[in-house]
Request: fold
Amino acid sequence: MKYFFYRAVAFFLAGTCLVFPAELSSGSAGATRAKWTGSFPAPTLVDDLDLPQTPVTAGYTVARPRLLFSAMDRDELRRKARENPALWQPVLNNARRVLDPAATPSPEDVTHGKTYWRIECVQSAALAWFVTGETRYRDGAIRWLLAHCREPVWGTNFRPNIDLQASWYLYYLSVAYDLLHGEMSRADATVIRAGLAAHAKAIFDDFDPVARTAAIRYDQNHTYTPTVALIAASLALLGEEPAADMWLERARAVLRRCRYVLGEDGYYYEGVGYWIYALHWHVRAAELLGRATGEKLMELPALRDNWRYALHLSLPGKPWAFDVGDTGLWKGDHQRPDIRVTGSSLLWSVARATGSRESRAAADLLGMRLPETDGASSAFLWFDNRHEPRPLAEIAPYHYFQDHGVVAWRSGWGTGDTAMLFRCGPPLGHAAAAKLGQLKDWVPNAGHVHADIGAFYLYAKGAYLAVGTGYTAEKWTRDHNTLLVDGKGQAMDGAYHNEHGVPYEQLDGARIDRVSLTKDYGFASGEFGGAYTRQVKNVNLRRSVLTTARWMLVADDFRAEDGAARRLTWLCHADAPFVAEPTASGFSHIARLPQAGLAVLTLTPVAEGLNAEASDTVVMAGMAPGKGRAEKHGYQLALTQRDPAVAIRFVNLLVPLAQGEAPPVVEGVIAKQEEKTISFGLKWPDGRTERVRVDLGWTPGKSSETGPVEIAPR
Reply:
């Protein structure tokens, strides 16, 4: 096999100064090249390494700079800086971090990597020199390059030299080295090049498919971030380091597998927090390899369609995003943290490469809310005003992420509109089930995905009302707006990796199969009983969610397939305590925030058949596997049937309330489980009335063309 030939050549090259020939890694003319899209990778990484890859373009290895732009782009970048001061000033602000020699990181600071993400300032400084010609930026960047490249260890927090801290260093230092290549002394260049090569080799060795004992988690940012850093270093050192071609080949093979396991619908499975932190590395890889080989790598659903995720997972007000998955780091004051949604530069890059007006619109919206500062150089380089943004009014305010089983609906794009999210799918999407069978060396790592299948989230009246509970070390179903069966939850309930030890097909059985989205309402229904199989067997669960601008209906149907009577618990979380309040409709609990409130009106079962418990939500918080620490993250309402049953239907109406507003009166409820329909009337305090009928048995394409919902004002 060609791969084993490479290993032999590598040992030979280690003692020589020969340049590794490009033909070895790129394949001969006419050979079958590894495809980035349109087919799946080989069963293992070893097999993938036998596939020849597209060579770098002619003249690539002699050009400087070459990674992100060329010397011919200088005038255009100067014009861009003049015309876009709001984007250029943050670059200069970051670049100033390198100007004071006393601020150069100490060996201890470099080794520890405590503020590793600040290394972006070196790229900003190199870019500032390239555009302005001011040598102080160049000299400061070179000082930082030397300070880092002299140290043999990068990042002691987790997996030194091969994980996130080392990866951020390697990428940004490689870009700066490329930009400043002809501006440093021979002695400095030798030190910097040797440091980059040593750290590139560490990552390269970690991905040795023969020597490696740990499984490769291709979906995880701990895998693809080092891979992208290795690509950057390899491309920066091509023509100078003998083994750079081989590093590049292995990195591209790993990346190809990482790209392949991404979802097929533009949804990012780890949540908004890690979407911001991690997905841009896939964009960086597409940019680097696109320039080096001419391949169009942004045409991947996870990138091309990611604008939908940005629009539908973000919120028009605090906390600015739905906190699905490990999103939102709570502090000691027990107050919900704002989420810094800074994904604009990622989407600008996609828009620039694909011409997507929707990506540009999503990027502009996020950039307006929170301008990019941490990644200022990327935001400046990726912004491109040649493609006009599509007006939000032309984009439907609802979407069904079919692969991941997530439905988003909102009444509009305004700050006062209602927004809903409903998740009922497996952690890595449905397509992952087949991919797991294809990639024999892939072990998924969905540690940032929570046990929240069947959960709903609601934002209305300018407030986050039905909420998530933030970043946790122990992923418990009880922390989410979903269901417990006999007090038990989903998959490996309470574990950091909720999916480990559970056959993926059990989680893949969670599936939305009925969706109807219109300007007036959003309806979705899905089954997810299989997610509980590890804890409770033979459970059939279906949740149907209907949302309008004024209310959300949640209907849950439970049946024990083995005839065993069980208790169902319905959960809802909020940022204010739930208080039982008498209403004309009877059984209700209301959580009142300063600016709005959420009323939970239970339509069935009747109050006498339920135990209601309103309490603090205490999660086991933390950012790593292991026992978490108890923290209060809001409040919860738990409704549990008093008597076990083989089958039961829960129906709850959630009503957003303005400050001081009373909930509507619910009349004429028909919601028996043996009926396929639910109907009820609403009488609002302002005198308006509604009559609602929902067909839970509606099937797309087979039922009435009018859809599953009838709402008639009276």
